[in-house]
Amino acid sequence: MRKAWITIALAATLGCNSSDGGDPDVCPQTSASTLTLPAHPSFLMLVFYRTTGYHHMSILPGVSAVSGLGAENNFSIEATDDPVLFTDANLARYAVVMFLSTTGDVLDSTQQAAFERYIRAGHGFVGVHSATDTEYDWPWYHALVGATFMSHPALQQGTVIVVDATQASTQTLPNPWVRSDEWYNFTAQPTGVTVLARVDESSYTGGTTGGTHPISWQHEYDGGRAWYTAMGHLSCAYGEGPFLNHLLGGIGWAARVY
Predict the structure, then answer these.
(1) Which residue range forms the structural domain that includes residue 95?
(2) d(Cα 172, Cα 236) in Å, to the nearest integer?
């Protein structure tokens, strides 16, 4: 059987690749996270990145960045694209499971049932970018992640507005926050969630979600916690200090550090 997880050191580059574009307006100067989680017991997070649809080139830079955040904040990660790890016994080892730009059908029905039991036991979930473009025939999952991907316009600069600046994943963000990403449209507005940030549809072209167009949110769901950001398409996002702060705060919230 192929290796179940990978250990990431400094192998993945955080700079833009050709598909990301090299324009400095797209890829801001690399900077480090400035957020530090409060003191807490160490924990383990599973970073799951299986794709059966579109595969983002930013996945490995994302794994590398999250590994670095863990090294600086008293948690460790195991990263995999192998769904066989989704068993009751194995999932119990993790405080949080992150779906990092997953796409398509990534778990079978037995693995889905194990993941549902994992969340009901009080654990945490972090969804990044195309986690909403995953498992369209699993209603429980889409209630967990909070929304369902519909479409996106071309990569372009847009303006993010922080809605709730009291949360760990938003308290250090610029407001407004001008950055480039793939701005997701959803089939419907998320409900029953705390909206953390929205994207201003007047700041770019192709937004069809309407209303406040949430782009990041969190909620308590079915006994566990779920945090999601639709940002993170570009490889260079994972070398962008504010985005790393955003991710780290979300991980800490899902892990009940906050």
Answers:
(1) 43-254
(2) 19
Determine, yes or no, domain membership for 34: no
pLDDT in tens, 82-123: 999 999 999 999 999 999 999 999 999 999 999 999 999 999
> Does residue 224 form part of some domain?
yes
Q: Cα separation of 140 and 25, whole Å?
A: 38
Q: In total, how many domains does the chain have?
A: 1
Instruction: Give the model's pLDDT for residue 25.
Output: 54
What CA–CA distance (Å, rounded) separates 97 from 71?
17
Task: Report the distance separating Cα 220 and Cα 218, nearest Å.
Answer: 7
pLDDT value at position 218? 98
| Residue pLDDT, tens place only, 137-168 | 999 999 999 999 999 999 999 999 999 999 99
User: What Rg value do the Cα atoms of the chain yield, rounded?
Assistant: 17
Q: Please give the biggest Cα pair distance in the chain.
A: 50
Q: What is the 3-state secondary structure of 88-156? A: HHHHCCCCEEEEECCEECCCCHHHHHHHHHHHHCCCEEEEEHHHHHECCCCHHHHHHHCCCEEECCCCE
Q: Which two tokens stand for residue 126?
A: 């972090």
Question: Contact, 74 vs 45, CB < 8 A?
Answer: no
Structural domain includes residue 61:
yes
Strand partners, 159: 178, 200
CATH number for position 76: 3.40.50.880
In a domain, 205, yes or no: yes
Please give the Cα distance from 182 to 232 (Å, whole number). Answer: 8
Residues 56 and 234: their CA atoms lie apart, in Å, by: 8
